[in-house]
Amino acid sequence: MQNTRMATRAARTAADIPTDDHIVGMVVKARAAMAWYADEIAAHGQARIDEAVTALAWSIYEPARARRLAEIAVEVTGIGEVESKVVKNQRKTFGTLRDLLRVKSTGIIENIPDKGIVKYAKPVGVVGALTPSTNPSATPVNKAMMALKGGNAVVIAPPPSAWAATQPAVDGMRRELEKIGLPADLVQLLPNPVTREATTAISTAPGRQTPNSAATAPSVPRRRLPTRTAMFVAFRPGSVWLIPSSSTKVVSSTQPCLATRLLLR
After folding, report:
1. CATH H superfamily, domain 18-264
2. Distance between CA 184 and CA 176 in Å, rounded?
3. pTM of the full structure
4. Less packed terminus of the chain by CB within 10 Å, N or C?
5. Angle, nearest 10°, between helix axes 63-77 and 163-179?
6. Contact 202/128 with Cβ under 8 angstroms?
7. Interval 58-74: pLDDT, tens
8. What burial letters (b/e) apply to 160-195, b meaning 16+ CB within 10 Å?
9. Sheet with 126-130, edge to edge strand ranges
10. Percent of the chain with pLDDT over 90
11. Run of H or E residues at 117
């Protein structure tokens, strides 16, 4: 186990570190995948989204895979116990799937005739999901489920100590997407070695600021995120804001740590 963790943290040269240009390339591929996904949603509606979300859930829920990913997580990170992680891989994912399938996430999602208000759901962009070493399999899958539920693509950014545990989870998601005729690049993994510089390239952007208009987002104080805060980052042109976790818990009964987000609009 110790040898596996040491191999994961092998020496890294500057040439190996993913650059901003490389990350931009991943975003370009993700946007192309989103365009394909959007066509599928336009043709088949909510059912196609829910099919994608279910496929991602199955990638980790299937009993043999749930166990194998749990074994890899403990072997790579040295954190936790296999049996506990098997339960987490399945129950956390089932809870997320249950809650997401109850929600409409495309087209008209609410109509308030007496106020003349019609609410439409649309994608926000490519989502960057920073994930923890304590949960290197289920958290990436659950965040990807949330992202695709909104019609988005996602780039997973695990900590260096957990990359080798997150890779098979991401590979499994990509395979399941291809099985149902969707592009694998809806889910991508930041390449190894993951460094502070590489995750900074995902989690920060020029012009980061708090929104100054209630019409665009809730007003919140500017603050620096803790180093290991798990969050979403949506890549879109323009300014950036942080939304407090209390207002973004998508499935609070099962996902207390998954939905802190940093949005680039």
Report:
1. Aldehyde Dehydrogenase; Chain A, domain 1 (3.40.605.10)
2. 8
3. 0.74
4. N
5. 160
6. yes
7. 999 999 999 999 999 99
8. bbbbbbbbbbbebbbebbeeeebbbbbbbbbebbbb
9. 187-189, 153-157, 126-130, 231-235, 260-264, 240-243
10. 59
11. strand 117-121
